[in-house]
Amino acid sequence: MNRLIKLIEKIFTFLSIASAFIMVLLTAADAMGRYFLNQPITGAYEITENYLMVFLVYFALVYAYREGANIRVTILFSRFPLRIKLPVQYFVQFFSVLFILFLFLSATKINLSRFDEAIELTKKIDLPLWPSYIIISIGLFFLCILIFLDLWKVKKGESGLFKEGES
Q1: What's the pTM?
Q2: Alpha-carbon distance 22 to 53, whole Å?
């Protein structure tokens, strides 16, 4: 199970990085075409906004969680005695699972009702939005699973929520 989770994390991270790379190339090519050739790439903005950005953000959530890139306000928490810190950390971890689960369920419900939406790139080409909607749900679902599985790592200090990120 642990190897499968690590594999999925690597795939998500790779897809996120690839999305950022493609986004940079597409935006640069679009800008060059727009300003030097007076011919922008049709749909570059729409593809970047509705696909590449979604891949980048929702697949990078897993990496950000694992690396401890979470916002923390530690001014009060750092002053707690050790016997209070652990129950608070368990509460935060459990609440995070519930919150991400709520986001997943809400996003999935909204996304399923918008399955037939599309973007008109040209008069002849419509780009469906359902793939990006699925990515949102997949990213949130996997993040929920990771946070839940890390519930047992809170005591060891290995949970992604409490890991200090690299500065």
Answers
A1: 0.82
A2: 10
The secondary structure of the chain, three-state, reads: CHHHHHHHHHHHHHHHHHHHHHHHHHHHHHHHHHHHCCCCCCCHHHHHHHHHHHHHHHHHHHHHHHCCCCCCCHHHHCCCCHHHHHHHHHHHHHHHHHHHHHHHHHHHHHHHHCCCCEEECCCCCEEECHHHHHHHHHHHHHHHHHHHHHHHHCCCCCCCCCCCCCC
Closest to 140 (Cα-Cα) out of 113, 103, 166, 110: 103
Residue 24: predicted pLDDT: 95
Residue type, 127: L
Token pair 């979470």 in the structure block, residue: 70
- Are the C-beta atoms of 20 and 56 separated by less than 8 Å? yes
Q: Give pLDDT tens digits for 108-152.
A: 999 888 878 887 777 777 888 888 889 999 999 999 999 998 888
Share of the chain above pLDDT 70, in %: 96
Terminal-residue alpha carbon distance, the chain: 31
Q: Give the Å distances, CA to CA, from 89 to 65, 67, 83, 92.
A: 15, 17, 11, 5
